[in-house]
Amino acid sequence: MSNDCRNNNIVLNSAIDMLMKFRDVESAECIFDSIKKKNIISYGALMSGYNINSKPWKCFKILEEMKQQGVVLNEHVWNILIGTCSKIDMIRQCQYIIDQIPLHIQNLKQIQISLIHMWVSIDC
């Protein structure tokens, strides 16, 4: 990969997405780790890839990293995390995540639909 590409978050985020879709989680993680200035899209691509590759628990580690870095989560990332909760079937962890979603995001239609899907998916 050329130096121009190695410093271009758009290219790197796309590479993460592509590698995850090809089930090459390790290479995607290497690219993610190489990104100097990670943004919300970088984190979202990695978390989405973990969900695709049946590694949803890794999303919670990324969430903690995002919080430590002061990254403000957007609707898209919250939606990914709700999808993660749908996969893990752990009601306490799901409630912990839901409790962190800001009210203005909870009120968005897509988030509400995802939350309904999540609660239906969880074995209570």
List keywords for this structure.
PPR_rpt, globular, Pentatricopeptide repeat-containing protein, RNA binding, PPR_At4g14850-like_plant, 2 domains, 9 helices, mainly alpha, 124 residues
What would you say this structure looks like, in words?
This protein is mainly alpha-helical and 124 residues long. It has 2 domains: 1-58, no CATH class; 73-124, no CATH class. The chain contains 9 helices and no strands. It has helices at residues 3-6, 9-21, 25-34, 40-52, 57-69, 75-88, 91-98, 103-106, 109-121. Helix 2 (9-21) packs antiparallel against helix 3, helix 2 (9-21) packs parallel to helix 4 and helix 6 packs parallel to helix 9. The radius of gyration is 15 Å and the shape is globular. PPR repeats lie at residues 39-73. GO terms for molecular function: RNA binding. This is Pentatricopeptide repeat-containing protein. InterPro entries: PPR_At4g14850-like_plant (IPR046960), PPR_rpt (IPR002885), TPR-like_helical_dom_sf (IPR011990). It holds the Pfam family PPR_2.
Sequence-ordered SSE layout with sheet pairings:
Blueprint: H1 3-6, H2 9-21, H3 25-34, H4 40-52, H5 57-69, H6 75-88, H7 91-98, H8 103-106, H9 109-121
Helix pairs in contact: 2-3, 2-4, 3-4, 4-5, 4-6, 6-7, 6-9
